[in-house]
Amino acid sequence: MCRVKITFLFFVVCFAVSCSTLDVYEKTSSFQKHEWMANDTVRCSFKIQDTASLYNIFVVVRHSDAYRYSNMWLNVATKAPNDTFIYQQIELKLADNSKGWLGTGIDDIFAQRIRITRYPVQLKMGEYQFQVAHIMREDPLLSVLNAGIRVEKVNP
């Protein structure tokens, strides 16, 4: 009897989880030999259906402990539906002297999710395009595993 209840509960939980919507879009690109070339632009696009919600937009970067700098400068281009690209230069703070690497890490790999919108933003319906390229002086930029964009719906 107890086994039947546990099995039933398991299926109910699985059904409830499978019916919920995933309100996160994320796409990253990996770099061969963990070297990000300056002309290797990460491109991604997302379709927005829910225009009533607010969203946070993040840059996602994974790097190894061998990354030589405490920051990373990026050129991020955003194109809203039926619009032109808007370019912004962004400095990502990856480490500081008191805490070391600021991202989450396992062994010698660190992942950063850094919000690039100051406040949650309302997005128009349609397809958004993003382009991310590093603008560091070092080319290729060594010890970077991947980079991309993450868009999260803000829960009320």
Walk me through what this model shows.
With 156 residues, the protein is mainly beta. It has one domain: Jelly Rolls (Sandwich), CATH 2.60.120. The chain has one helix and 14 strands. Strands 1, 4, 9, 10, 11 and 14 form a six-stranded antiparallel sheet that branches. The model is unreliable at 1-21 (pLDDT under 50).
Describe, in short, the structure shown.
The protein has 156 residues and is mainly β.
Determine the CATH topology: Jelly Rolls
Count the strands? 14
**What structural class do the secondary elements suggest?**
mainly beta
Q: For the CA atoms, what is the radius of gyration?
A: 19 Å
User: Which overall shape is indicated by the principal axes computed on the Cα atoms?
Assistant: globular
**Residue fraction in strands:** over 45%
The main pleated sheet reads as:
6 strands, antiparallel
- Give the SSE string: HEEEEEEEEEEEEEE
Annotated CATH architecture: Sandwich
CATH class: Mainly Beta
Number of domains: 1
Count of helical regions: 1
Helix content class: 10-25%
pLDDT < 50 stretches: 1-21
Distance between the termini: 40 Å
Tell me, rounded to a whole number, the average pLDDT: 86
